[in-house]
Specification:
mainly beta; four-stranded antiparallel β-sheet; elongated
Length: 560
C-alpha cells in the first residue's frame, strides 16, 4: 500500500483573494493596498474582507504606512501624498520632478520618496525638497526621524542626517531591493541577489549577515533582528543568525508588516494575504524552496537534485536539507540527466540544453536544442551520446562533450513529450499526436508505431520485453515492442502526467487530480494516495517516492 509519509510544506491559507494587489503596507489593524482595478484600498485584518476603495490614486506607484499606522504615504507620477489612515483623508500633496518608485513615512508624518531620476524628496527642516543622491532609479527608501537612507538599482546606498547635514555613502555594486532602519543607527539592506547586510554608517562598517535563495523584497523588524521576505520568510537574529523560517508565498512578496496583535502579514501577486505568527518560526521544512512546479528530481550519490519551473536548480540532502541553489535564468527547468563522468545536463522551457559541473555550476555555454521547450532527455549508452525531444516535434542526438548535434529525426506530427532508451541504440518517443514510435536513434525507419491512446502521451517506461505508457486520457497501457497493445487500465480520469519506475515490478503514475497510483508491469493498479496538488515530477530514492508538485512542494511517500 502507498502511504504519505511527509506532505509538502505549505503556507497558511490566504485571505483577500478578491484583491489584485501590486503593493501592500501593513502597520496596525487596517492594511493599505494598491489594487490593479480599484486603486488604493483598505484591508481590515484579520478578515481580509473588502474595507472599501479610498476612491483615488488608481495610478499610484508606491505606498508606505508609518510604524504606528496613523499616516500613509502615496507615491505617484508627479507628486507624493500624505493621508490620515485609515480614514484616507488627504493631509497634504507635494510635487516631484519624475515618477516616484519608493516611499517611506515615519510616525510624525515625515515622508521620503525615491524617484526614477535618482532624486530623493523629503519633508526636511526647510520644508519639502529634494537632494540628488543617485544617478539611477531609487529602488528603496526608509525614514526614521531626520535619518533617511536610500538605495538605487546599481547598489549605491546613501545615508543622510537631515538635521545635521551629515551623510555616508556605500557602494554595494548589487541591486538593492529593500531597506529597514533600526531603532539605533544601523540599516538592514536586502538585495536582489538574496544577500542580507547590516550597515552602520557611523562606523563605516558593512557586515554580510546571510544569503537566501531569492530576492529580498521586504524587511520587517524582529526582536534582536529582522525578518527577510524572499518568497519564504526568514528570521535573522543577533544571537542565532538565521533562526527560523515560515513558508509564505510562491511569488515575490509585495509587502510585509505587523498587523493587530503583532502578527506578521504578507502578500504576493495573485496569492492574497497570509498571516504568520512572529513568535513561532520553525526550522526550514524538508525540500522547501521552489516557488512553482518541481519538474524533475535526480538522486546523485547522497544528494538529490530538483529542477523547477521557477528556473532554479537545487541540491538537497536525502533528508531534505537544502545544500545549494543554482539559478539558471528566467526559463523554467524541465529535465535533468547525469552523465557518466558526473556532470549534469539540464533542459529548459526555452529549448536550451545546458551542461553543468557535478556541483551544478555552468560548464560551457548552453545550446539552443529545440524551438520551444525541451521536453525529454536521455542517455544512449551504446553510443555515448545524449538524446533530446522537444515541442518542435524533433528528436535530436548530441555529443555530450561538445554539445554539437549528431543527427535529427522526426517521427511525429506533433510535439515530442517523452522518451525512453531501449537496447540496441533504439528509442521510443511519446507525442501529443497520441502515438508512440520505436526507432533507431541514429537513423533508420520507424520499427513500430503504437496507437491506442486517445490523448497526448506524456510518459513512457521500458519493460524487459515491452513498454508502459501513460497519457492525458487517464490510462496506462502495456505494449509489446512490436507495437501490439497487451493491456490497458484506467488510473485517473483527470489524466496522467507522469510515470516513474519504483522497486522491482512496480511503477508510479502521477495524475492531474493529485492522485499517485502504484501500477504493475501487467498494467494493474495496486493502491493510490491523493496529494493536495497535482504531481509534476517524481523519483524513487532508496525506499521512498519523492513527488514534486505543481505548487513547488515535494511530498515523500512510502510503500507499506
Amino acid at each position: 500500500m502507498l502511504t504519505l509519509l511527509q506532505p509538502a510544506a505549505r503556507a497558511p491559507d490566504p485571505i483577500g483573494r478578491w484583491l489584485r494587489l501590486r503593493a501592500l503596507a501593513v502597520a496596525g489593524p487596517v492594511a493599505a493596498g494598491l489594487d490593479g482595478d480599484l486603486g488604493l484600498v483598505r484591508i481590515p485584518l484579520p478578515s481580509g474582507a473588502s474595507g472599501g476603495a479610498v476612491g483615488r490614486y488608481a495610478d499610484a506607484r508606491a505606498i508606505a504606512l508609518s510604524p504606528d499606522g496613523r499616516w500613509l504615504a502615496v507615491g505617484l507620477r508627479d507628486r507624493v501624498a500624505r493621508l490620515h489612515w485609515p480614514s484616507g483623508e488627504i493631509d497634504d500633496e507635494d510635487p516631484v520632478s519624475t515618477p516616484v518608485h519608493s516611499v517611506a513615512i515615519d510616525n510624525a508624518g515625515r515622508r521620503a520618496a525615491g524617484c526614477v531620476d535618482g532624486r530623493v524628496w523629503v519633508d526636511g527642516p526647510s520644508g519639502w525638497g529634494a537632494f540628488e543622491a543617485h544617478e539611477k532609479r531609487v529602488a528603496a527608501v526608509a525614514r526614521r526621524g531626520d535619518r533617511v537612507v536610500s538605495a538605487d538599482i546599481d547598489g549605491r546606498v546613501v545615508w543622510v542626517g537631515l538635521a545635521s547635514g551629515a551623510g555616508q555613502v556605500h557602494e554595494l555594486e548589487r541591486e538593492v531591493t529593500s531597506l529597514l532602519l533600526e531603532s539605533g543607527a544601523g540599516v538592514f539592506i536586502g538585495g536582489r541577489c538574496g544577500r542580507l547586510w547590516r550597515w552602520r554608517p557611523e562606523r563605516e562598517e558593512l557586515s554580510p549577515l546571510a544569503r537566501f535563495d531569492g530576492p529580498i523584497t521586504a524587511l520587517s523588524p524582529q526582536a534582536d533582528g529582522v525578518v527577510a521576505a524572499h518568497g519564504t520568510l526568514s528570521v535573522w537574529t543577533e544571537d542565532m543568525g538565521v533562526a527560523g523560517v515560515w513558508p509564505a508565498h510562491r511569488g515575490d512578496v509585495l509587502g510585509m508588516g505587523r498587523g493587530d496583535g503583532d502578527h506578521l502579514w504578507t502578500a504576493a501577486r495573485g496569492e492574497g494575504l497570509r498571516c504568520h505568527d512572529p513568535n513561532a518560526p520553525g526550522p526550514r521544512p524538508p525540500f522547501h524552496g521552489h516557488r512553482s512546479g518541481v519538474r524533475a528530481l535526480l538522486p546523485v550519490g547522497s544528494a538529490i537534485w530538483t529542477a523547477g519551473r521557477d528556473g532554479a536548480l537545487r541540491r538537497w540532502s536525502r533528508a531534505g536539507d537544502l545544500q545549494a541553489t543554482r539559478r539558471r535564468g528566467r526559463a523554467g527547468l524541465q529535465r535533468l540527466l547525469q552523465l557518466p563522468d558526473g556532470r549534469l545536463l539540464v533542459g529548459d522551457t526555452a529549448g536550451s540544453l545546458s551542461r553543468l559541473t557535478a556541483d551544478g555550476r555552468p560548464d560551457g555555454a548552453p545550446v539552443s536544442a529545440h524551438q520551444g521547450p525541451l521536453t525529454a532527455l536521455g542517455w544512449l549508452p551504446s553510443a555515448g551520446l545524449v538524446v533530446t525531444g522537444g515541442a518542435d516535434g524533433a528528436l535530436r542526438v548530441w555529443d555530450p562533450g561538445t554539445l554539437l548535434p549528431v543527427v535529427e529525426r522526426r517521427d511525429h506530427e506533433d510535439r515530442v513529450r517523452c522518451l525512453a532508451v531501449l537496447d540496441g541504440g533504439r528509442v521510443v518517443t511519446g507525442s501529443y499526436d497520441h502515438t508512440l514510435a520505436v526507432a533507431p536513434a541514429l537513423g533508420g525507419p520507424v520499427e513500430a508505431r503504437l496507437e491506442g491512446h486517445e490523448r497526448p502521451v506524456l510518459a513512457v517506461c521500458p519493460l524487459p520485453n515491452g513498454l508502459l505508457s501513460a497519457s492525458l486520457d487517464g490510462t496506462v497501457r502495456r505494449w509489446s515492442l512490436a507495437g501490439a497493445a497487451e493491456a490497458v487500465v484506467s488510473v485517473d480520469p483527470a489524466g496522467l502526467v507522469g510515470l516513474v519506475p519504483g522497486p522491482a515490478g512496480l511503477w508510479f503514475a502521477l495524475g492531474k487530480s493529485g492522485r499517485v497510483s502504484v501500477v504493475t508491469a501487467q498494467a494493474t493498479v495496486q493502491g493510490s494516495v491523493t496529494l493536495d496538488a497535482p504531481g509534476d515530477g517524481a523519483a524513487w530514492v532508496e525506499d521512498r517516492l519523492l513527488v514534486g508538485d505543481q505548487r513547488g512542494g515535494v511530498h515523500v511517500l512510502g510503500l507499506a
